[in-house]
Design a protein that fits this description.
binds iron/sulfur cluster; 336 residues; 35% helix; alpha+beta
């Protein structure tokens, strides 16, 4: 959908944040995110963490309210926050091998709402400062958007189709990650679920990339070879023996170097054209201070992921073929 065709999108370069929204951005988020830092470190708790852990409680409230005023959004997000109970860990452990347990977990997840599944060894760089994760494995589940609904973003009081799809995918992530954690517990191993949209111990994109679910895009979100940027994530950590999936490149990072679709579509111009140094890693970066006022006012926005050419089901196979022809698909993907 072009920006002209969607009446809810500001014309290019016309967006100006409301003064009352800007006034709530009391502290720049870029230093908290580690922009410009050359030393590798764990991420700091940030937006969508409990409000005593960051300075954006009021902005979070604006974002939540602008989302909830959209038709259908309330029930969709209520389902996302409806956490099932975790069952006790079974006293008797399964005697299956790591290969068998990985296959069993994958089969369970893919038959319980997850659209993709990957395993990575836990790395403490995936854990926000102040949190502890002791399990040695992280499973990341991908939940695909419905493109025809996602492309309706941003939402407002007149049209909630896009943000309802966001809520629906988070709700599927909650159900599938808790379901998988309980399946693992039934095998006699510990497991915890980490669905969105609230943030918890785990940052999800880096382990998703390590687990082969995609590459980091210029818009700061995951690009999946199967679903493009129209995808949400949920994590499960466990001490159940597993086999790592391994990362996988298909050319998204290389494609981003010459694509400007999201940088041009982003109303506040928040998406950096070049990679930036962030917590000791050179990577794509979105300027929090530019993104978040629009994100908060526009019901969680979503324009960059909807506009990304990889998200379009009719375009994605052609891009995959083009990048394969260019020979850029060899090697491991990295979140740098
Ligand atoms: S979510 Fe943020 S970065 Fe993406 S288009 Fe909206 S304002 Fe821009
Ligand atoms: S729109 Fe283009 S530059 Fe942005 S993430 Fe997608 S492929 Fe990369």
């Amino acid at each position: 959908m072009s920006e002209e065709a969607n009446p809810r999108r500001p014309k290019r370069k016309t967006y100006v944040p409301k003064p009352e929204t800007l006034a709530l951005l009391k502290v720049s988020g870029n230093p908290i995110n580690g922009l410009g830092e050359t030393t590798v470190r764990r991420p700091s708790p940030f937006f969508w963490h409990p409000p005593d852990q960051h300075p954006y409680e009021e902005l979070q409230n604006v974002a939540r309210l602008s989302s909830r005023k959209c038709p259908g959004s309330g029930p969709a997000f209520m389902a996302a926050y409806n956490y099932p109970e975790l069952v006790p860990v079974a006293e008797e452990r399964s005697g299956a091998s790591a290969e068998e347990l990985t296959a069993g977990a994958r089969e369970f997840a893919l038959s319980h709402e997850a659209d993709d599944f990957g395993v990575a060894a836990m790395d403490q760089l995936y854990v926000f400062e102040g949190y502890t994760v002791e399990e040695p494995w992280v499973i990341v589940l991908a939940l695909a958007h419905n493109y025809d609904r996602l492309k309706e973003v941003p939402s407002d009081e007149t049209n909630g189709v896009g943000v309802v799809d966001i809520g629906d995918q988070y709700a599927r992530g909650t159900r599938s990650s808790y379901g998988l954690a309980n399946w693992i517990r039934s095998q006699g191993y510990n497991a915890h679920a980490y669905p969105g949209p609230s943030a918890n111990a785990l940052v999800l994109i880096p382990p998703a990339i390590a687990a082969g679910l995609g590459e980091l895009g210029k818009h700061g979100s995951l690009i999946s070879r199967h679903f493009g940027s129209g995808v949400r994530l949920a994590g499960v950590t466990t001490d159940m023996p597993l086999v790592a999936s391994g990362s996988s490149r298909f050319g998204a990072d290389d494609f981003c170097k010459s694509c400007q679709v999201c940088t041009r579509a982003c109303p506040p111009g928040a998406i950096s054209e070049e990679k930036q140094m962030v917590r000791g890693m050179e990577r794509w970066y979105v300027d929090f201070d530019k993104c978040i006022p629009y994100f908060a006012e526009a019901a969680s926005c979503g324009i960059c992921i909807a506009e990304c050419p990889w998200t379009r089901p009719d375009v994605r196979p052609k891009l995959l073929a083009t990048m394969a022809r260019r020979g850029v698909v060899a090697g491991a993907a990295s979140w740098m």
